[in-house]
Design brief:
With 453 residues, the protein is α/β, with parallel strands linked by helices. It has helices at residues 15-22, 75-87, 92-95, 107-119, 131-140, 146-149, 152-174, 181-195, 202-211, 245-250, 282-291, 310-320, 359-363, 390-403; strands spanning 3-7, 28-31, 40-44, 47-51, 64-67, 72-73, 96-99, 103-104, 199-200, 216-219, 259-265, 268-270, 304-306, 308-309, 324-328, 338-347, 350-352, 366-373, 407-411, 419-421. Bound molecules: guanosine-5'-diphosphate (GDP), 6-O-phosphoryl inosine monophosphate (IMO) and magnesium ion. Residues 7, 11-17, 39-41, 43, 292-293, 297, 328-329, 331-332, 411-414 line the site of guanosine-5'-diphosphate.
Length: 453
């Protein structure tokens, strides 16, 4: 069974932890978009590991982690992450694969990211990792791909053009220092050399893996509300974080996906600027932030926190076609006397049940809440849905009803063991999917191979 795990809020839903819990069910884990703006935390045997570019799940033995063509790769960050994984005993040489079609984040992308943020009238609050400018180059068809990074001459040629253009932009528009072409060339050629043994034709790699019956987990980074099309634009990231991004970002057909699992926090957070209709008042914000340790796993910035927003979650569940969702961080609400759930928005006397496309309008919306009792007891040790306090079960059932999707997994702590499945887990049992294997690729007669229109 091939599975997509996708965040259905503004990122940091706990995808890393859920993927780590599920990793033993699959053979290959694939990132399909984003870059090292992501921070996916896994706590295993009391030790924390934060994945940024490499798919979460590689702390399990024998897994392959593939960085798909839709990802933007900072070679420096990737090599550092590989070294950290190696130090944890992972056979990185075997386990990490990189698509030859993925785009490369260069230092000028990072500088441009910061410069653009500094000059915008309304900041986005990006992670400063060069993600947006790298995707801009990809769409502008001037970007450098991994295949070229690994080819010294072609890299030199592409880099020369890019450095010339970017230096002009940086100097004229932002009054920044230029980059030295020769310095970048030497450093990045060396990175290309180090990464080369990991580079694969990823679409082909996945096609062959599926033909052998290997099971794949596609790992979403960020969340649906940060999706460049469906999120709270322009306060979004620059890729398709939702499940739709899997096909173009990994190079697999839609028919390769059997199940889609949404991951959602029992409340809401976001990092950076942009609307967050259910944002807590300061005292409650401080309390939940402390209890939930809501600080960015990539930048360390404090996350903004708020009540569960069912308008957002319902829309994201529908958009991703989630078969079920995993609810995380239920334990963070353990000592709340009462809990609010946002069921709609009010805008100038009108009730809205969809997230409006006009983000300016969303910024003016007030949440419509219903209030439910809290459970005021510790859920960290609970191992079965039936053993949760009655009010916690009622809360989860209410969320499921409002989202229109069953809850198949509940997480009540950051440790690997602090999670349990519900009866709806059945949806994800092996054998429940329609089995289909891709047919072997047709062989072209020699003369026509590579022919194009
Ligand atoms: P991701 O980006 O979606 O993978 O999420 P992050 O790793 O950025 O943020 C989630 C944070 O919550 C991490 O620090 C996790 O260790 C932690 N976490 C995950 N699940 C739970 C949970 O059920 N309870 C608590 N208290 N912490 C959790
Ligand atoms: P994971 O995968 C939360 C946010 C940034 C900013 C916006 C654009 O850990 O859930 P970017 O650097 O991508 O151009 O920033 O997106 N953002 C995230 N917020 N979790 C993430 O990843 C994020 N990745 C980017 O804070 O608001
Ligand atoms: Mg994160």
């Amino acid at each position: 069974m091939n599975l997509v795990v996708v965040g259905i809020q503004w990122g940091d839903e706990g995808k890393g932890k859920i993927i780590d819990v599920l990793a033993d069910r699959v053979d290959i884990l694939v990132r399909y978009q984003g870059g090292n703006n992501a921070g996916h935390t896994v706590v295993a045997n009391g030790r924390e590991f934060v994945f940024h570019l490499i798919p979460s799940g590689l702390l399990h033995r024998g897994k392959i982690g593939l960085i798909g063509n839709g990802v933007v790769v900072d070679p420096e960050a990737l090599l550092k992450e590989m070294a950290q994984l190696r130090a944890r005993g992972v056979n990185v040489r075997r386990a990490v694969k990189i698509s030859d079609q993925a785009h490369v984040i260069m230092p000028y992308h990072k500088r441009l990211d910061l410069a653009e943020e500094g000059s915008r009238p309304g900041r986005i609050g990006t992670t400063g990792r060069g993600i947006g400018p790298c995707y801009v180059d990809k769409a502008a068809r001037s970007g450098i791909r991994i295949a070229e990074l690994c080819h010294p001459e072609r890299f030199a040629e592409k880099l020369r053009r890019n450095v010339k253009d970017k230096n002009r932009l940086l100097q004229v528009l932002y009054r920044e220092q230029p980059f030295d072409y020769q310095d970048l060339l030497t450093r990045y050629r060396a990175y290309g050399k180090q990464l080369a043994p990991h580079v694969v034709n990823s679409a082909r790699f996945l096609f062959e893996a599926m033909a052998k019956g290997r099971r794949i987990l596609f790992e979403g980074a960020q969340g649906t509300m940060l999706d460049v099309d469906f999120g709270t634009y322009p306060y979004v990231t620059s890729s398709n974080a939702s499940a739709g991004g899997v096909c173009t970002g990994a190079g697999v057909p839609p028919t390769a996906v059997d199940r889609i699992l949404g991951v959602v926090k029992a409340y809401t957070t976001r990092v950076g600027e942009g609307p967050l209709p259910t944002e807590f008042p300061p005292a409650l914000m401080a309390r939940i932030r402390r209890k939930g340790q809501e600080f960015g796993a990539t930048t360390g910035r404090p996350r903004r926190c708020g009540w569960f927003d069912a308008v957002v979650a319902r829309q994201a569940v529908r958009l991703n076609g989630c078969h079920a969702v995993a609810v995380t961080k239920l334990d963070v609400l353990d000592d709340m006397p009462e809990i609010k759930i946002c069921v709609a928005y009010r805008w100038k006397g009108t009730r809205l049940t969809e997230v409006p496309a006009d983000t300016g309008l969303l910024l003016e919306c007030q949440p419509v809440y219903e209030t439910v009792p809290g459970w005021r007891s510790d859920t960290g040790e609970v191992g079965r849905f039936e053993d949760l306090p009655a009010a916690a079960r009622r809360y989860l059932r209410r969320l499921a009803h409002l989202m229109g999707v069953p809850i198949c997994l509940v997480s009540t702590g950051l440790q690997r063991e602090q999670a349990f499945t519900t009866d709806h887990w059945d949806l994800f049992r092996e054998g429940r999917e329609r089995r289909r294997r891709p047919r072997a690729a047709p062989r072209l007669p020699a003369g026509r191979r590579g022919a194009s229109a």
